[in-house]
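Sharing a chain and its predicted structure for anyone who wants a worked example. Both blocks are below, sequence first, tokens second.
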Amino acid sequence: MTQRWRAVGVLAAALFAVNVVARVIIKLGFDGNDTAADRVSLGMFVVVGLILAGVVFTWGKAVPAARWGADVSAAVAVALLLTVLVGPLLVGNNPFGGGAGLFFAQIWLYLVAAAAGVALGYLVLITLGRDHRSQQLRRYAERNVGKPRRVVRR
């Protein structure tokens, strides 16, 4: 059980680290340039989605969807809270400084990027037939094809 929560914590920390790196790049390199800051933010959301796609692709091979789904959801929730509430404080901004619209826009954009990454990873996994359920069905079919049906006489 500790290994499971450790993996969730590492994923949440990695997602938060991507956000911190993007905020530091914006603060140091593009302070005041809104167009460049928006591009860096878009890049951050793409990286978050790609990380989640890779994690879902990797975890989906070994464990059922219900388990990795709960783990990924927990990691995204923790990373989202850290990103929205702690991330701005690290670069000297107020989390609510841009108003309620910007605050909730960050939440929605993060959730959309996370959902797109999870969907991409899972769809690729299913398309290739490498997900946990497909592997179980393949093993079942291989096991039952070799045995002829036994006839019982009465």
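Comments welcome. The two ends are 51 Å apart (CA to CA).
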